[in-house]
User: Fold TOBE domain-containing protein from Methanoculleus bourgensis.
Amino acid sequence: MKLSARNQLPGKVKHIDTGMVTAEVVIALDGGGEITSVITKKAVENLGLTVGKKVYAVVKSTEVMVAVD
Assistant:
């Protein structure tokens, strides 16, 4: 699979919290840290997502905000 998105972060599914329509998917990134995605319940089913499955968090954005204290 080839994507134009430059930010492809490999990891494993740590937790899936499924609601009526959407699901919150927590991914433990290979480089450390976590990222959370909210996707449809149907997408979770179509992708066959389960805890421990190897996935990529793909970030495609035209704007990234940076903040400091």
